[in-house]
Design a protein that fits this description.
The protein is an all-alpha fold. 76% of the residues lie in helices and 0% in strands. The chain has 9 helices and no strands. It is elongated and about 60 Å long.
Length: 185
């Protein structure tokens, strides 16, 4: 693994452990076992580290989601603990953490807009491969509904440490089935 990858691994660990605001370049240097100067050799500033990290996380999510797209996107018969693969869920949590900074930082805002756009476009491509006659606008509307539900679930479970109610999965299954009905939208 390269030094730049070591730095990104350390940045991801720090952000998962301490959050975006409490993660400093100094902490990343300590966690990666390199000097601050070496970090600045690879990355101009914290924003550049964030951009590289977000790009890596998005690519990881795309790989994981595409590996079993039909199951992840349509076969919602899971338990509340595994609606999404754990690595995807943790990646979403990390992206949400970085997104909080997007309200104050125009560059981070653009990085996150690009990331969410790339994830959405990938979803559209995968969905159209399964359903070639489905229009992108319909897929995007369905994705919008389902991602809001899933984001809310992740926020409650991972960030607020709240258990998912026992009756949620049957309800979620009905929502998913209705959103994906051929005549919906």
């Amino acid at each position: 693994m390269s030094r730049s990858e070591d730095i990104l691994d350390a940045a991801e660990r720090c952000m998962r452990q301490h959050g975006f605001y409490q993660t400093s370049v100094q902490q990343i240097a300590r966690e990666s076992g390199v000097s601050i100067g070496l970090i600045y050799k690879y990355y101009k500033n914290k924003e550049a580290i964030i951009e590289a990290l977000v790009t890596r996380v998005v690519q990881r999510m795309i790989t994981l989601l595409n590996a079993d797209f039909k199951h992840v996107a349509h076969d919602i018969t899971h338990s509340a603990q595994d609606i999404l693969p754990p690595a995807v869920e943790q990646s979403i949590v990390l992206l949400m953490e970085v997104s909080a900074e997007a309200t104050r930082n125009a560059r981070i805002h653009q990085i996150m807009q690009d990331a969410w756009q790339e994830l959405g476009n990938n979803f559209i491509r995968q969905e159209q491969a399964l359903n070639p006659t489905l229009e992108a606008r319909v897929i995007r509307a369905r994705l919008s509904v389902m991602s809001r539900v899933i984001d809310g679930l992740i926020i409650r479970r991972c960030m607020k440490q709240q258990a998912i109610p026992a009756g949620f999965i049957p309800f979620f299954t009905v929502i998913n089935r209705e959103v994906h009905r051929p005549d919906a939208i």
